[in-house]
Design brief:
heterodimer; A: mainly beta; six-stranded mixed beta sheet; three-stranded antiparallel beta sheet; B: mainly beta; seven-stranded mixed beta sheet; four-stranded antiparallel beta sheet; 11 strands; 52% strand; globular
Chain lengths: 110, 118
């Protein structure tokens, strides 16, 4: 049972912007870094953002991340059909002493 | 090239035991934790636990604690996820991933599909 809450689904037309929220608690996002992953079911997840707002090499700047308090946000600009996937936030839970992923958001390109 | 290569798919019966593996290459194995993540078909990603290859210290998600065991063999740069008694609800795709100190996972294995059915 995830303690990071995301909207179940979002959709937008090609070229538009999508904003995915990740709502946590004082024991998760408030004191820990957030990361974001793109996941096509059946394949390995791909790291998009780490340490709140850093992009790994090879990740386009159409993906950006931020965090404020107990809420993190992933923004995808210039939406492309290839961006259709599930997106997850992730962090550490200081109370459970365990990692945790968000509930996941399915992004559909209209 | 930094890689995590997992063992192949398994089909087991309820009550059977199983150990799957994740072999690391291209980096110093003991420099990073190894996490395990589950994806049940149609469901989200679930963090199972992590192990420090240096000293085998572990953290488990409460949802999995007592049902699975994490271990490593440093001599062959390999991490393991083990079940003593599988249940049908363990049917899923399991990933290992390299975990950084700030808890992100940059490198992932290809996944191991476990099917538990009588």
């Amino acid at each position: 049972q995830s303690v990071l809450t995301q909207p179940p689904s979002l959709s937008a037309a090609p070229g538009q912007k999508v904003t995915i929220s990740c709502s946590g608690t004082s024991s998760t996002l408030a004191g820990n870094f957030v990361s974001w992953y793109q996941h096509v079911p059946g394949t390995a997840p791909k790291l998009l953002i780490y340490d709140n707002d850093k992009r790994p090499s090879g990740i386009t700047d159409r993906f950006s991340g931020s965090k404020s308090g107990t809420t993190a946000t992933l923004v995808i600009t210039g939406l492309q059909t290839g961006d259709e996937a599930d997106y997850y936030c992730g962090t550490w839970d200081d109370s459970l002493l365990a990692g945790t992923f968000g509930t996941g958001t399915k992004v559909t390109v209209l | 090239e930094v890689q995590l290569v997992q063992s192949g798919a398994e089909v087991k019966k309820p009550g059977e035991s199983l150990r799957i593996s994740c072999q690391a290459s291209g980096y110093t194995f003991t420099d990073y934790w190894i996490s395990w993540v589950r994806q049940v078909p149609g469901k989200g990603l679930e963090w199972i636990g992590r192990i420090d290859p240096e000293d085998s210290y572990t953290n488990y998600s409460p949802s999995f604690h007592g049902h699975v065991t994490l271990s490593v063999d440093k001599s062959i740069n390999t991490a393991y996820l083990q079940w003593g008694s599988l249940q049908a609800s363990d049917t899923a795709l399991y990933f290992c991933a390299r975990m950084a100190t700030t808890s992100y996972h940059r490198v992932w294995g290809q996944g191991t599909l476990i099917t538990v059915s009588s």
